[in-house]
Amino acid sequence: MEKILDIAEAIAHEKGLMPDKVLEALKTAFVQTAKRVINKNFAFVAEVDPTKKSIRVIQTITVVEDNDERLQDEELAPAYIAISEAREYDDQVELDDQLQIEHSIEEYGRTGASQLHREIEYHVQRLVEDEIYSKYQSKIGTLVSGRVTRVDSQNATYIEVDEIRAVLPMKSRIKGESFKVGDHIKAVVRRVNMSKDDGMQIELSRTSPKFLEALLALEVPEIAEGTVVIERSARIPGERAKIAILSTHPQVDAVGATVGVKGVRINAVSDELIGENIDCIEYTTIPELFISRTMSPAIISHVEIVKNEEGENEKAIITLPSDQKSKAIGKSGINIRLASMLTGMQIELIESDEASSQDTEVEEKKDGVDALEALFN
CB–CB of 79/96 below 8 Å? Predict the structure, then answer.
């Protein structure tokens, strides 16, 4: 086929692909076409002729011993030739030499042309999908936006994002929100799958903590620039969230910058999250202090960290006044759940009154034992 290199460049320009990759896809298409219209058991290679800008299809046959077992195998035999037979054509041939026979797809008429067209279409499409897959695989956890094109019977929302269609499952929607065709929505890329049966599937999420982080980066320039860093985040979608932030600049207040003047920045993010309340916490590497901050608005008296056998922080025992316990737990346990998610530790609450009574009981028992010992001594 003439001018195939020009065709490769045209396809690459139209699809936004690398010309070298397109050329490799075309060579694969030629080889597969030759296998289909000539013989599936032949070993073919495709070579580029840069002068003619064409691709040649060449059958390679390997020279083997006369008694080689592969010559008796129906599927393998077409790729090999006995040395005695090969020397009838060329008496200089040696074992393991490869003889080459050129084939022309054009000689197979309409059948060859239509098969080649299908193969080129298939392999170029696979190349496009691979490029998109790599692009969106690198975008996992990042923010995208698009227009709703369909909502199915399971309330899965299909969104047109640039050149692809992604899906936002109902489980990844914030409770209480609904969409209709034509709506423009934001979400983060949660997962990218590729399968032979379904092709490429891109799943979005609005419930992931990464969505909250992406919205904050969009709304707060200090986060986007890296002056303020989001160390950790936890969400119960649509209800409440906690973020642990840290300033990398001594003159920048992490919490103040994130909240904004009169709360304008944090409120803008909250509105996108259907009124989700967002607590901003200054991050610290001191675990006791960090846990104390995550329990806000409750006021904590004391924090004790319990480590596991590997020496890792596993549990936090928090002592607090009895009138602070309900605040620490929060409505339906939401505050303590978020604190546990943010710290990665199990949290146990002990009221200070209870702790004091336990200490008093121990002291009373100790005093009684001392008195008995004095009596008998």
Answer: no
Same domain assignment for residues 198 and 214: no
Compute the C-alpha angle 240/244/248, nearest 5°: 145
Rounded Cα distance, 306 and 190, in Å:
34
- Domain residues for the domain of 197 are 140-205
Q: What is the CATH number of the domain that holds 377?
A: 3.30.300.20
Identify any residues that bridge with 186 across adjacent strands, giving them in sequence order. Answer: 145
In this structure, the answer to whether residues 112 and 159 fall within a common structural domain is: no
**Tokens read off for 212:** 């909250």
CA 8 to chain CA centroid, nearest Å:
32
Answer whether residue 288 is part of any domain: no
pLDDT one-digit tens code per residue, 124-146 = 988 988 888 888 899 999 999 99
171, containing H or E segment: none
pTM of the model: 0.73
27-73 pLDDT tens trace: 999 999 998 998 888 888 898 888 788 888 988 888 888 888 888 88
371: β partners: none
Name the amino acid, one letter, at 316. A
In tens, the pLDDT along 216-269 reads 999 999 999 999 999 999 999 999 999 999 999 999 999 999 999 999 999 999
Is 265 part of a structural domain of the chain?
A: yes
What the block records as the tokens of 97 is: 């030499």
Phi, psi of 157 (to 5 degrees): -105, 125
Residue 194, in any domain of the structure:
yes
